[in-house]
Specification:
- It is a single chain.
- The C terminus is likely disordered.
- It is rod-shaped and about 190 Å long.
- The longest helix is centred in the last third of the chain and has 47 residues.
- The chain is built from 4 helices and 32 strands.
- Helix content is 15%, strand content 36%.
- It has 510 residues and is α+β, with helices and mostly antiparallel strands.
């Protein structure tokens, strides 16, 4: 049963093919030569039409009238006829299609009014054979075409729409606002790859349509980026960080292009081309710091790089003592301790002191503070220095005298820094107010100087405090008189006891 169905299906398919093909091809069984031809009036169309049974071609033709038909002329033995008035034995058939409808070998060509585009075949028959035919497509009327403009191939909403008749040209829209301030309009293109530019002199027909909607032409704007360059100043390299040459970059945050010039002609392809390598000598030093040794025989200068704290420069130098002014009996001298560095970045360091010494002494007192006030809690520190070679001053120290009397070591302490003698407050309290002489004794000499003990300043007492002090004073006076009173009372009691004993004895005798 299935086999029979397949055979019947094949037979039907073959018959359909034959049925459709017969009107378009001559019957070779009656191959007779006829002097016939067809022509079409195309004076009101934009296209031309080619005819011929051997090579029929479809050529678009456009008609303005809604119900117009192509004018077909039949030539038989040199005589012209219309399709409706041809000699006996000849006849016409029409095969045409529009939309999804298809008609084969119709004897009457209808008035087309529902569609705009038709595909038509005119066939002239003689003795059951097609002796001539013409194939073409034509338009019943000039339909509307739609030209849609888009800002770019990725856009889904058009910015403008033009409606024109078939075969007409469209016009470019004007004053297109660029997507950004960095874009420049190039032109309109028919493809989303923006490779085929559209010529606005082109007649809009089906051949130039590119969109799925019927009779629609979509055009896409092409933009080129316009760099808006700003200068980026050069950054000098440091010991820790690379620098950069000056360059220009586009203000557009989406653009990463950089250029070696402000005109944007020399683009820098590799950013490393503008990098300046680290300069091991390009330090950013902070202010130098100076450190004196305790005995002031050495000074160390140092500074750190602010780019990298591990980059440090130091220099340690020996000091020298310069006598600026010799002391006299009436006035102390002036000496300076000076440190001079080879590195010009480090400044000369100077400490200046007043000093007092005998003419033959090599030692001197260089303390700035040489007075002490009664009631003080801190010691009086006096510093003695060897003016020629201070390195062993501390080891050469023997002791001190105050007002030519040797001072017990319990009354002072000593420490290095040349020699610093700290007179204790307990000892100083015992000294009288006024000027005193101190002599520091060393193995190779001594140094004499003066210091002053001052009375403590009287403090102002407020009235309320004065009353309290007076009350305390009165209380103290009352207490001071109480011993005398007690003595009188004791004497009175003793006298009374003696009298009482005498009276008792006399009574016994009696």
């Amino acid at each position: 049963m299935n086999k029979t169905k397949k055979i019947i299906s094949k037979i039907i398919s073959i018959l359909l093919v034959v049925f459709i093909a017969v009107p378009f091809f001559p019957m070779t069984a009656n191959a007779i030569s006829y002097d016939v031809s067809l022509s079409v009036d195309t004076s009101n169309s934009y296209g031309t039409m080619e005819v011929g049974i051997n090579n029929p071609r479809t050529v678009p033709t456009y008609y303005a009238a809604e119900s117009a038909r192509p004018i077909v002329t039949v030539y038989i033995d040199g005589v012209s006829y219309s399709p409706d008035n041809i000699p006996e034995g000849y006849y016409f058939t029409y095969s045409y299609s529009y939309g999804n409808a298809q008609y084969i070998n119709e004897t009457t060509l209808p008035v087309f009014s529902n569609e705009d585009l038709y595909y038509v075949n005119y066939s002239l028959w003689k003795d059951n054979s097609v002796v001539e035919k013409i194939s073409f497509e034509y338009y019943l009327m000039n339909p509307d075409y739609y030209v849609m403009f888009y800002m770019g191939p990725d856009e889904t909403d058009h910015i403008a729409l033009q409606t024109i008749k078939g075969g007409q040209t469209c016009r470019p829209i004007e004053a297109v606002e660029p997507p950004t301030e960095y874009d420049v309009f190039v032109g309109w293109y028919t493809d989303k790859d923006l490779t085929n530019s559209f010529d606005f002199n082109t007649h809009v027909t089906d051949k130039v349509l590119n969109a799925a909607p019927r009779r629609t032409l979509e055009l896409y704007a092409k933009w080129e980026h316009r760099h808006k360059l700003v200068k980026v100043d050069a950054v000098e390299p440091t010991c820790a960080k690379a620098g950069k040459k000056e360059y220009w970059k586009c203000e557009d945050p989406k653009c990463e292009a950089i250029f070696a010039d402000g005109d944007g002609e020399n683009e820098i392809e590799v950013e490393e081309d503008i990098v300046l390598p680290i300069d091991s000598n390009a330090h950013d030093w902070d202010e130098p710091v100076y450190s004196w040794s305790v005995d002031e025989t050495e000074v160390t200068a140092s500074r750190k790089c602010q780019n990298d704290a591990s980059h440090v420069e130091t220099e340690t130098v020996k000091t020298e003592i310069v006598i600026v002014k010799e002391p006299t009996d009436a006035e102390d001298g002036i000496l300076q301790i000076i440190a001079t560095f080879k590195n010009s970045a480090f400044e000369k360091q100077v400490r200046e002191y007043g000093f007092n010494r005998g003419a033959e002494d090599e030692y001197a007192l260089i303390s700035e503070l040489t007075e002490w006030i009664k009631g003080g809690k801190d010691p009086l520190s006096l510093r003695f220095k060897n003016l020629t070679d201070d390195e062993g001053t501390f080891d050469q120290f023997l002791g001190i005298k105050v007002d030519d009397e040797l001072v017990d070591e319990d009354n002072y302490t000593k420490e290095k820094g040349s020699v610093i003698v700290n007179l204790k407050p307990e000892y100083l309290e015992k000294l009288s107010v006024g000027e005193h002489t101190i002599e520091a004794m060393f193995i190779y000499g001594s140094a004499k100087a003066k210091f002053t003990i001052k009375e403590a300043k009287a403090t102002e007492v407020k009235p309320a405090e004065a009353k309290k002090e007076a009350a305390k004073s009165n209380a103290t006076k009352t207490g001071d008189s109480s011993p005398l009173l007690i003595a009188i009372i004791v004497m009175a009691v003793s006298a009374l006891a003696i009298v009482t004993m005498i009276v008792v004895k006399k009574k016994k005798k009696n």
